[in-house]
Write a structure and sequence with these properties.
The structure holds two protein chains of two kinds. Chain A is an alpha/beta fold. Helices cover 41% and strands 16% of the residues of chain A. Chain B has a six-stranded mixed β-sheet, with no helix packed on it. The chains are: A alpha/beta, B alpha/beta. Chains A and B meet through helix 7 of A and loops of B.
Chain lengths: 268, 234
């Protein structure tokens, strides 16, 4: 049986694919899974930076595919989790250096030894996307609660359906609950209403994400981060645990409304 | 009036364009280009079979015809001809060659007819030809039919439905829709929830009003007094 290959994609750029991949990789490894994360964004690699492994790269994905090194040599072991590996993208080449068949072959080599293989897809719907999706058993589509990102996610789901990769599951990233409450931002319901696919997680906007990514320590390692908690929940859902997806901030939303009422009452 | 050089009609797998076999090639192709440009929305994305009759068409001529169509978003899928030269040229360009009997293909087309003549291949009741889609039509997908289009699902923003006849959406219509794309002003658009990005019927265009939080209701759109009106679907 072996590993489950999970591709993280979005269509639109900048919605948080790489952050999601790094965090899910770390969260899954921390729960005792053997994990490989693969950066399929050849020419614009980032995953190594976010995971804090940039300075350890010797060989990359293209070196493996073109036979300049063994697969093992391109796998960088994580500093903290010995069961977590990264296969970085090449920075000096482009997407055409790898084919969908190469990706299938590569993941087939890795499957027997691991529990999860996560693939960070590039933005777009061209060759890089097709490379990333070709070996996937499951596809996670990352989107933000804004119309243009949802539109692109819809396009991606259509393409996945055409390739029989199922509709995939949705991660709604960077949700600001106060804006949703004021009706200034799309809610989870608004988004699933259009996309009509299963929601696997809602990640709240969290200021600790960017410094964590900059320093190469994914935010999910921070126990106090709400985004980090959301990524841990998604990881557990990927492992088959049944954790309900609740809209961000619902539990204390009521409380806060009472506080607001109280404060505005004082003002008046 | 000069004899019509270009006749276009619907066949089972796309459009059949019959080019007059005796008129000068340059004139015929220029007429074809003009015809397509007049009805850009209808032709865009179409797959066509070109019938040149007994005219021998050289490989370079055929290849420039193919390019002319491609520039307008049309795929040349097959070539039909009684000339060996043409068939060889088509094979050299890796195009399918089809053996539509030209006499049969011209049945029922009035050469004096104005605009484009779309004759449905089926000898059924007029207008009974159409396609049924049993899924959500997502962004980036384009559905193109000479007849009616029925969608059993949603039409999402960024999707396009173009029909020669009516468009019925058993779901939410949020994308672009064009009914009566060949000029039929009697075409209608119906949806369980009508909020299209843009709605066209024949040559008329309208957009949905900016309403926040409305209750979905079945509606139908049609042309009355030269403009598109939307009413409750009864």
């Amino acid at each position: 049986m072996g590993a489950k290959v999970v591709t993280i994609t979005s269509g639109k750029g900048g919605v948080g694919k790489t952050t999601t991949t790094a965090n899910l990789g770390v969260a899954l490894a921390r729960m005792g899974n053997k994990v490989v994360v693969i950066d399929a964004d050849i020419g614009l690699r980032n995953l190594d930076v976010v995971m804090g492994l940039e300075n350890r790269i010797v060989y990359d994905l293209v070196d493996v595919v073109e036979g300049r090194c063994k697969l093992r040599q391109a796998m960088i072991k994580h500093k903290q989790f010995p069961e977590l590996y990264l296969i970085p993208a090449a920075q000096t080449r482009d997407k055409s250096a790898v084919s969908p068949a190469d990706m299938i072959q590569l993941t087939d080599h890795l499957r027997p030894e691991f529990d999860f293989i996560l693939i960070d897809s590039p933005a777009g719907i061209e060759r890089g996307f097709r490379n990333a999706v070709a070996p996937a058993d499951e596809v996670l589509i990352v989107t933000n609660p804004e119309v243009s990102a949802v539109r692109d996610a819809d396009r991606i789901i259509g393409l996945l359906e055409a390739e029989n990769k199922g509709p995939g599951q949705l991660i709604l990233n960077r949700v600001k609950s106060d804006m949703v409450r004021k009706g200034e931002m799309l809610s989870a319901d608004d988004v699933t209403d259009i996309l009509a696919i299963r929601l696997i997680g809602i990640v709240p906007e969290d200021e600790s994400v960017i410094p964590a990514s900059n320093s190469g320590t994914p935010v999910t390692l921070n126990e106090h981060s709400r985004a980090g908690q959301a990524f841990r929940d998604i990881a557990r859902r990927l492992m088959g645990e049944n954790i309900p997806v609740v809209p961000v901030d619902e539990p204390n939303g009521f409380l806060r409304r009472i506080v607001k009422l109280f404060v505005s009452g004082n003002d008046g | 009036m000069r004899e019509q050089t270009v006749v276009i009609k619907g066949i089972k797998d796309g459009l059949l364009i019959s080019l007059n076999p005796t008129e000068e090639w340059n004139i015929v192709t220029a007429d074809l280009a003009a015809r397509i440009d007049e009805q850009m929305a209808f032709f865009s994305g179409a797959r066509v079979t070109v019938d040149v009759g007994e005219r021998p068409v050289r490989k370079d001529e055929l290849s420039s015809l193919k390019a002319l169509l491609e520039r307008r978003g049309i795929t040349l899928q097959a070539v039909s001809s009684e000339s060996h030269t043409t068939i060889e040229a088509a094979i050299a360009l890796d195009l399918r060659t089809s053996n539509i009997s030209t006499n049969h293909a011209r049945d029922g087309v009035d050469p004096e007819a104005e605009g484009v003549a779309f004759i449905v291949n089926h000898q059924e009741e007029d207008g009974s030809y159409g396609i049924m889609i049993r899924r959500t039509v997502r962004s980036g997908r384009r559905v193109h039919s000479l007849g009616h289009v029925v969608v059993f699902g949603d039409v999402n923003p960024g999707a396009e439905i173009i029909a020669g006849g009516d468009v019925i959406v058993w779901g939410r219509l949020r994308g672009n829709v064009h009914a009566g794309a060949n000029g039929d002003e009697n075409a209608v658009v119906c949806a369980l929830d009508m909020i299209p990005t843009q709605l066209r019927i024949a040559g008329h265009i309208s957009v949905s009003p900016d309403e926040k939080r409305r209750k979905p209701r079945p509606e139908t759109a049609f042309i009355r007094d030269n403009q598109i009106v939307v009413e409750a679907w009864k």
